[in-house]
Amino acid sequence: MPSGERESATMAVTRRVAELRREGIEVLDLGAGEPDFPSPGTAVKAAQRALDEGRTKYTVLEGTAELRALLADRYCAQGAPWSAANTLVTVGAKAALYQLARAFLSPGDEAVVHTPAWVSIPAQVRLAGAEAVTVAMAAEDGFAIRAQPLIAAMTERTRAVIVNTPCNPTGAVASILDLERLASACAERGALLISDETYERFVYDGRRHASVAALAARYPDTVVLVGSFSKSYAMTGWRVGYLLGSAEVVAAAAAVQSHVTSNATSFAMAGAEAVLAEEPPESAALVAACARRRQVVLRELERVPGVVCPPPAGAFYAFPDVRACLDEACPDSASLCGRLLDEARVAATPGSAFGCEGHIRLSFACSDEELAAGLDGLVRVLGRSTGRVVSSFAAGGRAG
Ligand SMILES: Cc1ncc(COP(=O)(O)O)c(C=O)c1O
Fold it and tell me: What is the 317 CA–ligand 1 centroid distance (Å)?
């Protein structure tokens, strides 16, 4: 029987962009959550070397000993008592989250999830047969991930609280205080606190990323960290992610993995080892580019009166409130994204995909040129919808 779960809305946008491009139609893609940077040279060379050396066979299920040790070291430096045995390398962070859902959630169980949420988090909970109890974070608070409303939604059936910080699609983050409160509440009730920190490097305005790694020593059986090489190192296609937690959590997620994907790709892991062994400068350059592009997006959106966009604290998405642009012909975020694609050839993702109508998600991980042209079209269409656009001069000059 089909699960009833539909294709990921973000992937559907990516697919639509690819279709249009195949038809020869130029699309400005502010939809994809994929850095425009190439993968670091050190990763590419290491993978090529691994292929040349015949690292083309199955590895141990949990990932290479080298990669697991390097990952554990990275998070030990943040205070976690984790070793290679607490580390599982997965086929992207997506598989890590899915395996956790399959290992720890069953029909009748609940997982508490904040919204807006990355599309796959509640979907994976449902695929495991459990209920995703969604809790809306406050727009007035910039969608900051707060512990109190999440704790209030916990019941005796709660097996996990899943947070994503920095958050896709809002860029909002959880403070270490909120994470600590959540860890304590989860520990009291025997639930897991799963923290998807795929965007850990992308934090702005001098902030420091708050990670559950810093709480692992105090809550060793409770906190689980999920991460990825996809965004931090522009290695989306390599499909390497990971989770770290108690040995019991690792064993349970590995058991699922043993029936689903087996090990992550052998030579892709060689590339991942290389970037952990020697930090490539490209990663910091990517974060710096995103910080600059974030300013461009915020400045351009200010040109449309009525469109409100809290500055994202992290990740590489803006999540503006576009309710001022909705009308009878275009009543929701999905139809507005359709209009953007039809009239300006700009791809964006509807907020409804993330459980938050009235917003759209704009990715600023694309190139400067694509971003500038995309924002031009976007501002034109949104401005037509509200009947007003402030000139770029009045808004403080064109984005550079
Ligand atoms: C919040 C979040 N978690 C996990 C992932 C998946 O990352 P990976 O490519 O490692 O599977 C994504 C990808 O968009 C994401 O946005």
Answer: 13
